[in-house]
Specification:
By secondary structure, this protein is α/β, with parallel strands linked by helices. The protein has one domain: Metal-dependent hydrolases (TIM Barrel), CATH 3.20.20. The protein contains 15 helices and 11 strands. The strands form 2 sheets. It has a 9-stranded parallel β-sheet, sandwiched between helices. Strands 10-11 form a two-stranded antiparallel ribbon. Helix 1 packs parallel to helix 12, helix 2 runs parallel beside helix 15 and helix 4 packs parallel to helix 6. The longest helix is centred in the last third of the chain and has 19 residues. The relative contact order is 0.18.
Length: about 375
Protein backbone atom coordinates (compact mmCIF):
# COMPACT_ATOMS: atom_id res chain seq x y z
CA UNK A 1 0.00 0.00 0.00
CA UNK A 2 1.57 3.32 -1.05
CA UNK A 3 -1.04 5.66 0.43
CA UNK A 4 -2.65 6.01 3.82
CA UNK A 5 -5.31 8.55 4.75
CA UNK A 6 -5.74 9.76 8.30
CA UNK A 7 -9.03 9.37 10.14
CA UNK A 8 -8.39 12.60 12.09
CA UNK A 9 -10.82 15.49 11.67
CA UNK A 10 -8.32 18.33 12.20
CA UNK A 11 -4.66 18.07 11.21
CA UNK A 12 -2.08 20.80 11.65
CA UNK A 13 1.36 20.17 10.19
CA UNK A 14 4.05 22.12 12.05
CA UNK A 15 6.90 21.44 9.61
CA UNK A 16 6.45 22.28 5.91
CA UNK A 17 8.84 23.98 3.46
CA UNK A 18 7.75 26.44 0.77
CA UNK A 19 10.65 26.25 -1.68
CA UNK A 20 9.78 28.56 -4.57
CA UNK A 21 7.35 31.30 -5.41
CA UNK A 22 6.42 29.21 -8.46
CA UNK A 23 5.22 26.38 -6.20
CA UNK A 24 1.96 27.98 -5.07
CA UNK A 25 -0.35 25.55 -6.88
CA UNK A 26 1.83 22.58 -5.99
CA UNK A 27 1.72 23.47 -2.29
CA UNK A 28 -2.05 23.87 -2.37
CA UNK A 29 -2.47 20.54 -4.17
CA UNK A 30 -0.23 18.71 -1.68
CA UNK A 31 -2.13 20.19 1.26
CA UNK A 32 -5.47 19.09 -0.14
CA UNK A 33 -4.32 15.62 -1.20
CA UNK A 34 -2.75 14.85 2.19
CA UNK A 35 -5.83 15.94 4.12
CA UNK A 36 -3.84 18.48 6.14
CA UNK A 37 -6.07 21.33 7.27
CA UNK A 38 -3.42 23.95 8.08
CA UNK A 39 0.33 24.07 7.61
CA UNK A 40 3.22 25.84 9.31
CA UNK A 41 5.68 27.09 6.71
CA UNK A 42 9.06 26.92 8.43
CA UNK A 43 10.96 29.64 6.61
CA UNK A 44 14.74 29.34 6.76
CA UNK A 45 16.24 32.50 5.32
CA UNK A 46 18.79 32.55 2.51
CA UNK A 47 19.98 36.13 2.97
CA UNK A 48 22.30 36.21 -0.03
CA UNK A 49 19.42 35.27 -2.32
CA UNK A 50 16.64 37.22 -0.61
CA UNK A 51 14.71 33.96 -0.34
CA UNK A 52 13.26 31.59 2.25
CA UNK A 53 10.85 33.86 4.08
CA UNK A 54 9.26 35.97 1.28
CA UNK A 55 7.53 33.07 -0.48
CA UNK A 56 6.00 31.97 2.83
CA UNK A 57 4.71 35.49 3.47
CA UNK A 58 3.16 35.40 0.00
CA UNK A 59 1.30 32.17 0.79
CA UNK A 60 0.07 33.60 4.09
CA UNK A 61 -1.14 36.77 2.36
CA UNK A 62 -2.96 34.88 -0.39
CA UNK A 63 -4.30 31.94 1.67
CA UNK A 64 -4.62 33.45 5.11
CA UNK A 65 -6.62 30.64 6.73
CA UNK A 66 -4.33 27.84 5.59
CA UNK A 67 -0.75 28.81 6.36
CA UNK A 68 1.06 29.78 9.52
CA UNK A 69 4.53 31.28 9.02
CA UNK A 70 7.45 30.68 11.35
CA UNK A 71 10.10 33.16 10.21
CA UNK A 72 13.79 32.30 10.13
CA UNK A 73 16.45 34.64 11.49
CA UNK A 74 18.60 36.70 9.10
CA UNK A 75 22.33 36.65 9.85
CA UNK A 76 23.44 38.63 6.78
CA UNK A 77 25.49 41.12 8.79
CA UNK A 78 27.57 38.35 10.37
CA UNK A 79 27.83 36.25 7.22
CA UNK A 80 28.83 39.18 5.01
CA UNK A 81 31.43 40.61 7.35
CA UNK A 82 29.40 43.78 7.76
CA UNK A 83 28.65 44.42 4.07
CA UNK A 84 24.94 44.11 4.84
CA UNK A 85 23.16 45.62 7.81
CA UNK A 86 20.41 43.76 9.67
CA UNK A 87 18.41 44.44 12.83
CA UNK A 88 19.44 42.52 15.94
CA UNK A 89 17.98 39.04 16.30
CA UNK A 90 15.75 40.25 19.12
CA UNK A 91 14.46 43.10 16.94
CA UNK A 92 13.84 40.67 14.09
CA UNK A 93 11.78 38.34 16.26
CA UNK A 94 9.63 41.17 17.59
CA UNK A 95 9.13 42.63 14.11
CA UNK A 96 8.07 39.29 12.63
CA UNK A 97 5.44 38.83 15.31
CA UNK A 98 4.19 42.41 14.90
CA UNK A 99 3.93 41.78 11.14
CA UNK A 100 1.70 38.77 11.74
CA UNK A 101 4.08 35.84 11.65
CA UNK A 102 3.12 33.06 14.03
CA UNK A 103 6.50 31.93 15.35
CA UNK A 104 10.21 31.56 14.66
CA UNK A 105 12.07 28.85 12.77
CA UNK A 106 15.66 28.13 13.79
CA UNK A 107 18.20 26.08 11.87
CA UNK A 108 21.02 27.31 14.14
CA UNK A 109 21.82 23.94 15.68
CA UNK A 110 22.12 21.83 12.53
CA UNK A 111 25.83 21.09 12.00
CA UNK A 112 25.74 22.42 8.42
CA UNK A 113 24.63 25.78 9.80
CA UNK A 114 27.48 25.70 12.29
CA UNK A 115 29.83 25.20 9.35
CA UNK A 116 28.57 28.43 7.80
CA UNK A 117 28.46 30.50 10.98
CA UNK A 118 30.49 29.07 13.84
CA UNK A 119 28.71 30.88 16.67
CA UNK A 120 27.29 28.76 19.50
CA UNK A 121 23.73 29.56 20.56
CA UNK A 122 25.17 30.28 24.01
CA UNK A 123 27.27 33.13 22.58
CA UNK A 124 26.44 36.76 23.55
CA UNK A 125 25.36 37.23 19.92
CA UNK A 126 22.16 35.32 20.79
CA UNK A 127 21.69 36.53 24.37
CA UNK A 128 19.22 39.36 23.79
CA UNK A 129 17.29 37.21 21.31
CA UNK A 130 16.72 34.45 23.87
CA UNK A 131 15.57 37.02 26.43
CA UNK A 132 13.10 38.55 23.98
CA UNK A 133 11.81 35.18 22.76
CA UNK A 134 11.11 34.09 26.32
CA UNK A 135 9.46 37.42 27.12
CA UNK A 136 7.23 37.27 24.02
CA UNK A 137 6.32 33.62 24.52
CA UNK A 138 6.90 33.03 20.82
CA UNK A 139 6.77 29.39 19.67
CA UNK A 140 10.00 28.28 18.00
CA UNK A 141 10.56 25.28 15.71
CA UNK A 142 14.26 24.55 16.22
CA UNK A 143 16.40 22.04 14.30
CA UNK A 144 19.20 20.87 16.58
CA UNK A 145 21.60 18.10 15.57
CA UNK A 146 21.24 15.33 12.98
CA UNK A 147 21.05 11.53 13.12
CA UNK A 148 24.02 9.91 14.86
CA UNK A 149 24.98 8.03 11.69
CA UNK A 150 25.83 11.34 10.01
CA UNK A 151 29.07 11.31 12.04
CA UNK A 152 29.89 7.77 10.83
CA UNK A 153 31.09 7.57 7.19
CA UNK A 154 30.31 3.85 7.04
CA UNK A 155 26.70 4.35 8.18
CA UNK A 156 25.93 7.60 6.34
CA UNK A 157 22.85 7.10 4.09
CA UNK A 158 23.30 7.78 0.38
CA UNK A 159 20.72 10.56 0.32
CA UNK A 160 22.54 12.35 3.14
CA UNK A 161 25.91 11.87 1.47
CA UNK A 162 24.61 13.55 -1.69
CA UNK A 163 23.73 16.64 0.36
CA UNK A 164 27.08 16.77 2.19
CA UNK A 165 25.38 16.01 5.49
CA UNK A 166 28.24 13.83 6.71
CA UNK A 167 30.42 15.22 9.47
CA UNK A 168 34.03 14.66 10.47
CA UNK A 169 36.46 15.44 13.27
CA UNK A 170 36.50 19.16 12.45
CA UNK A 171 32.72 19.51 12.85
CA UNK A 172 30.81 20.23 16.03
CA UNK A 173 29.93 17.07 17.92
CA UNK A 174 26.39 15.96 18.69
CA UNK A 175 26.81 16.11 22.48
CA UNK A 176 28.25 19.62 22.26
CA UNK A 177 25.08 20.82 20.52
CA UNK A 178 22.90 19.16 23.15
CA UNK A 179 24.97 20.75 25.92
CA UNK A 180 24.48 24.19 24.39
CA UNK A 181 20.71 23.69 24.26
CA UNK A 182 20.68 22.61 27.91
CA UNK A 183 22.52 25.81 28.82
CA UNK A 184 20.03 27.96 26.88
CA UNK A 185 17.06 26.23 28.53
CA UNK A 186 18.60 26.56 31.98
CA UNK A 187 19.02 30.31 31.43
CA UNK A 188 15.56 30.68 29.87
CA UNK A 189 13.21 28.01 31.24
CA UNK A 190 10.13 29.70 29.79
CA UNK A 191 11.12 29.26 26.14
CA UNK A 192 8.43 27.46 24.12
CA UNK A 193 10.36 25.30 21.68
CA UNK A 194 9.32 22.52 19.32
CA UNK A 195 12.48 20.54 18.59
CA UNK A 196 12.33 19.28 15.03
CA UNK A 197 12.74 15.63 14.06
CA UNK A 198 12.13 14.34 17.62
CA UNK A 199 15.31 16.15 18.68
CA UNK A 200 17.17 13.18 17.17
CA UNK A 201 16.61 11.21 20.37
CA UNK A 202 14.44 8.48 18.86
CA UNK A 203 17.12 5.85 19.51
CA UNK A 204 17.12 6.67 23.23
CA UNK A 205 13.58 7.09 24.57
CA UNK A 206 14.68 7.08 28.24
CA UNK A 207 16.90 10.10 27.50
CA UNK A 208 14.03 11.75 25.60
CA UNK A 209 11.78 11.21 28.64
CA UNK A 210 14.35 12.76 30.97
CA UNK A 211 14.64 15.75 28.65
CA UNK A 212 10.87 16.29 28.70
CA UNK A 213 10.75 15.92 32.48
CA UNK A 214 13.58 18.42 32.96
CA UNK A 215 12.17 21.00 30.51
CA UNK A 216 8.35 21.20 30.80
CA UNK A 217 7.88 23.87 28.09
CA UNK A 218 9.49 21.98 25.19
CA UNK A 219 7.99 19.70 22.53
CA UNK A 220 9.19 17.35 19.78
CA UNK A 221 7.87 17.28 16.24
CA UNK A 222 7.50 14.13 14.17
CA UNK A 223 8.92 15.35 10.85
CA UNK A 224 10.87 12.37 9.46
CA UNK A 225 14.06 11.80 9.70
CA UNK A 226 13.04 8.32 8.62
CA UNK A 227 15.50 6.96 11.19
CA UNK A 228 12.99 8.14 13.84
CA UNK A 229 10.39 5.66 12.64
CA UNK A 230 12.94 2.84 12.32
CA UNK A 231 14.40 3.47 15.78
CA UNK A 232 11.04 3.53 17.54
CA UNK A 233 9.80 0.56 15.50
CA UNK A 234 12.46 -1.65 17.06
CA UNK A 235 10.32 -1.67 20.21
CA UNK A 236 6.86 -0.40 19.24
CA UNK A 237 5.39 -1.11 22.66
CA UNK A 238 7.98 1.10 24.33
CA UNK A 239 7.31 3.71 21.66
CA UNK A 240 3.58 3.53 22.24
CA UNK A 241 4.07 3.88 25.99
CA UNK A 242 6.25 6.95 25.44
CA UNK A 243 3.74 8.55 23.07
CA UNK A 244 0.86 7.93 25.47
CA UNK A 245 2.75 9.36 28.44
CA UNK A 246 3.92 12.44 26.52
CA UNK A 247 0.99 12.92 24.14
CA UNK A 248 0.80 16.56 25.28
CA UNK A 249 4.40 17.18 24.17
CA UNK A 250 4.48 15.75 20.64
CA UNK A 251 3.49 17.73 17.55
CA UNK A 252 2.62 16.33 14.14
CA UNK A 253 4.99 17.25 11.30
CA UNK A 254 5.94 15.81 7.93
CA UNK A 255 8.80 17.87 6.43
CA UNK A 256 6.67 18.19 3.30
CA UNK A 257 8.10 20.40 0.60
CA UNK A 258 6.40 22.32 -2.20
CA UNK A 259 8.99 20.80 -4.55
CA UNK A 260 7.55 17.29 -4.09
CA UNK A 261 5.05 15.76 -6.45
CA UNK A 262 1.55 15.30 -5.08
CA UNK A 263 2.13 11.54 -5.00
CA UNK A 264 5.34 11.96 -3.01
CA UNK A 265 3.58 14.30 -0.60
CA UNK A 266 0.73 11.86 -0.03
CA UNK A 267 3.20 9.04 0.59
CA UNK A 268 5.31 11.08 3.03
CA UNK A 269 2.32 12.19 5.10
CA UNK A 270 0.74 8.75 4.83
CA UNK A 271 3.78 7.03 6.31
CA UNK A 272 3.47 9.14 9.47
CA UNK A 273 -0.32 8.68 9.62
CA UNK A 274 -0.01 4.92 9.27
CA UNK A 275 2.75 4.72 11.89
CA UNK A 276 0.63 6.65 14.40
CA UNK A 277 -2.79 5.17 13.70
CA UNK A 278 -2.36 1.51 12.70
CA UNK A 279 -0.69 -1.60 14.05
CA UNK A 280 0.65 -2.45 10.58
CA UNK A 281 4.18 -3.57 9.80
CA UNK A 282 5.36 -1.97 6.54
CA UNK A 283 8.21 -0.47 4.55
CA UNK A 284 8.64 2.89 2.89
CA UNK A 285 6.99 2.64 -0.56
CA UNK A 286 9.28 2.60 -3.58
CA UNK A 287 7.58 5.74 -4.90
CA UNK A 288 8.55 7.78 -1.80
CA UNK A 289 10.70 10.86 -2.13
CA UNK A 290 14.48 10.49 -2.10
CA UNK A 291 14.99 11.77 1.45
CA UNK A 292 13.04 8.85 2.89
CA UNK A 293 15.55 6.40 1.48
CA UNK A 294 14.98 3.06 -0.27
CA UNK A 295 12.40 0.56 1.04
CA UNK A 296 15.05 -1.93 2.11
CA UNK A 297 16.45 0.44 4.73
CA UNK A 298 14.11 -0.70 7.48
CA UNK A 299 10.76 -1.81 8.88
CA UNK A 300 8.12 0.53 10.31
CA UNK A 301 5.78 -0.87 12.97
CA UNK A 302 2.65 1.08 13.76
CA UNK A 303 1.70 2.13 17.29
CA UNK A 304 -2.13 2.26 16.93
CA UNK A 305 -2.47 5.27 19.21
CA UNK A 306 -5.93 5.99 20.66
CA UNK A 307 -8.01 8.88 19.35
CA UNK A 308 -7.44 11.06 22.42
CA UNK A 309 -3.66 10.96 21.92
CA UNK A 310 -3.97 11.45 18.17
CA UNK A 311 -6.11 14.56 18.65
CA UNK A 312 -3.43 16.15 20.81
CA UNK A 313 -0.61 15.22 18.44
CA UNK A 314 -2.41 16.16 15.21
CA UNK A 315 -3.70 19.54 16.35
CA UNK A 316 -4.25 20.18 20.05
CA UNK A 317 -0.64 20.76 21.05
CA UNK A 318 0.16 23.15 18.21
CA UNK A 319 -3.09 25.04 18.80
CA UNK A 320 -2.00 25.54 22.39
CA UNK A 321 1.29 27.03 21.17
CA UNK A 322 0.33 29.00 18.06
CA UNK A 323 -3.45 29.31 18.09
CA UNK A 324 -6.11 27.52 16.09
CA UNK A 325 -5.84 29.88 13.11
CA UNK A 326 -2.94 31.78 11.54
CA UNK A 327 -2.54 35.36 12.70
CA UNK A 328 -3.57 38.07 10.20
CA UNK A 329 -0.69 39.43 8.14
CA UNK A 330 0.04 43.14 7.95
CA UNK A 331 0.55 43.18 4.19
CA UNK A 332 2.16 46.62 4.10
CA UNK A 333 4.66 45.56 6.74
CA UNK A 334 5.34 42.36 4.76
CA UNK A 335 6.00 44.41 1.61
CA UNK A 336 8.43 46.65 3.49
CA UNK A 337 10.18 43.62 4.99
CA UNK A 338 10.57 41.98 1.59
CA UNK A 339 11.99 45.17 0.12
CA UNK A 340 14.55 45.26 2.94
CA UNK A 341 15.44 41.61 2.36
CA UNK A 342 15.98 42.33 -1.35
CA UNK A 343 18.34 45.19 -0.48
CA UNK A 344 20.21 43.03 2.03
CA UNK A 345 20.68 40.32 -0.62
CA UNK A 346 22.10 42.83 -3.07
CA UNK A 347 24.51 44.24 -0.48
CA UNK A 348 25.57 40.78 0.61
CA UNK A 349 25.97 38.93 -2.67
CA UNK A 350 25.79 41.47 -5.48
CA UNK A 351 22.63 39.88 -6.84
CA UNK A 352 20.35 42.60 -8.18
CA UNK A 353 17.60 43.30 -5.66
CA UNK A 354 14.93 43.19 -8.37
CA UNK A 355 15.91 39.58 -9.21
CA UNK A 356 15.26 38.22 -5.72
CA UNK A 357 12.20 36.36 -4.51
CA UNK A 358 11.83 39.09 -1.92
CA UNK A 359 11.43 41.82 -4.55
CA UNK A 360 9.02 39.70 -6.58
CA UNK A 361 6.87 39.02 -3.51
CA UNK A 362 6.87 42.72 -2.61
CA UNK A 363 5.71 43.56 -6.15
CA UNK A 364 2.98 40.91 -6.15
CA UNK A 365 1.65 41.91 -2.75
CA UNK A 366 1.66 45.58 -3.70
CA UNK A 367 -0.43 44.73 -6.78
CA UNK A 368 -3.08 42.73 -4.94
Amino acid sequence: MSEWSSKAKDILDCHVHMRSLADEESMLAIREATGIDRMVLVSIQNPGEGAGLPQSLYMKACHSSLFFVFAGLNHAEKLSGGKASTPSLAEQAAAYLEMGCDGIKMIEGKPTSRQKMDIPVTDPYFAEYWERAEELGVPIVWHVNDPEEFWDPDALPGWAKERNWGYGPDDVRKEQLYAEVDEVLTRHPGLRIIFAHFYFLSADLPRAARFFDEHPTVYFDLAPGIEMLYNISRDPEAGREFFLKYADRIVFGTDLSSSLSVEEGVIRAGIVYRWLESDDTFRVPEEADFLLGPPEDGIVRGMALPDVALARIYSGNLIRLAGSRPRPLDVQAAIAACERLASIAEAMSGKRAAETDAAQVAERLAGR
